[in-house]
Specification:
The chain is an alpha/beta fold. The protein is 48% helix and 16% strand. It has eleven helices and ten strands. Strands 1-2-3-5-7-10 form a six-stranded mixed β-sheet, with helices on both faces. Strands 4-6-8-9 form a four-stranded mixed β-sheet. β1 and β2 form a beta hairpin. α1 runs parallel beside α3, α4 crosses α5 and α9 runs antiparallel to α10. The radius of gyration is 19 Å and the shape is globular. Bound molecules: acetoacetyl-coenzyme A. Acetoacetyl-coenzyme A binds next to α2, β6 and α4.
Length: 261
């Protein structure tokens, strides 16, 4: 792939969007490669994915403005769908995804980070939805995910003003969970990913499904969803091993590959 690097170490995969000359801006080719890289993940072995940006300055500086500059209405709609489909694939991936935001996360870059489960960033990170300054709306899920993450009032302010914010403000409004010096960001993401990967994978996947799908439901249906997923963990290797080892004070032995039982 020309623009995506995918490396796997143990149960953690790291996907780097690598188009540093354009600050990792997302054109159609990058989006297609991102889609293919997500499809290529071996979900029987990988338990957590990290997404980051190549180069020194940027996570992703947005959708590619050059490519978008000549689109017709129909082509604009199709380009929005292309980004939305890939980001939804990331959001609904069975395993947790951590965005390690190393610099600019603007427009489609912020939208990519928001499709991940967890966002952490470097202290030089900059977030924003600059689209209305370019005469368009956020188009890869920004109007929907930003409002869900930081609340409609703050999302509307950020989107209507097109104002960029720095890492400390992103932390304050809950857009990111933690801020690190640049050189500590990837190690912190890897440590968090390893911490997730050592837990029972069926249970971790069920938690992701319960939180993501439950947030779309009323409370009664959401709790019923949780009950079903909670129940689905019983009689699995991880539950029998995990609880048995707690009772006998032994260390649980993980399964080498992921299976549904
Ligand atoms: N699309 C295409 N190219 C981009 C880009 C983008 N979103 N962002 C940066 N680049 C390119 C620049 O054109 C430049 O290329 P050249 O060297 O060939 O001229 C290169 O990356 C480096 O950029 P700058 O020289 O501008 O770097 P800087 O440090 O001076 O500024 C920046 C950095 C503030 C991020 C600035 O590049 C910028 O404002 N970029 C655009 C950010 C933006 O508006 N993003 C939203 C896009 S719209 C969108 O994403 C829609 C959607 O929701 C789907």
């Amino acid at each position: 792939m020309a623009f995506i690097q995918l490396e796997t170490q143990g149960a953690v995969a790291t996907l780097t969007i690598d188009r540093p000359k354009a600050l990792n801006a997302l054109n159609s080719a990058v989006l297609e490669e991102l889609d293919a890289a997500i499809d290529a993940l071996d979900l029987s072995a990988v338990r957590c994915l990290i997404i980051t940006g190549g180069g020194e300055k940027s996570f992703v500086a947005g959708a590619d403005i050059g490519e978008m500059s000549t689109l017709t209405k129909a082509e604009g709609t199709a380009f929005g769908k292309k980004g939305n489909d890939v980001f939804r694939k990331i959001e609904t991936l069975p395993i947790p995804v951590i965005a390690a935001v190393n610099g600019f996360a603007l427009g489609g870059g912020n939208e990519l980070a928001m499709s991940c489960d967890i966002r952490i960033c470097s202290d030089n990170a900059v977030f924003g939805q600059p689209e209305v300054g370019l005469g368009i709306t956020p188009g890869f899920g920004g109007t929907q995910r930003l409002a869900r993450l930081v609340g409609p009032g703050m999302a509307k302010q950020l989107i209507y003003t097109a104002r960029n914010i720095k890492a400390d403000e992103a932390l304050r409004i809950g857009l990111v969970n933690a801020v690190y010096p640049v050189e500590e960001l990837l190690p912190a993401a890897q440590k968090m990913a390893a911490g997730i990967a050592k837990n029972a994978p069926i249970a971790v996947r069920a938690c992701k499904k319960a939180i993501n799908e439950g947030l779309e439901l009323g409370m009664d249906d959401a709790l019923a969803l949780e009950e079903g997923l909670f129940g689905s963990c019983f009689e699995t290797h991880d539950q029998i091993e995990g609880m048995g080892c707690f009772m006998s004070r032994e260390k649980p032995k993980p399964k080498p590959v992921f299976t549904n039982n």
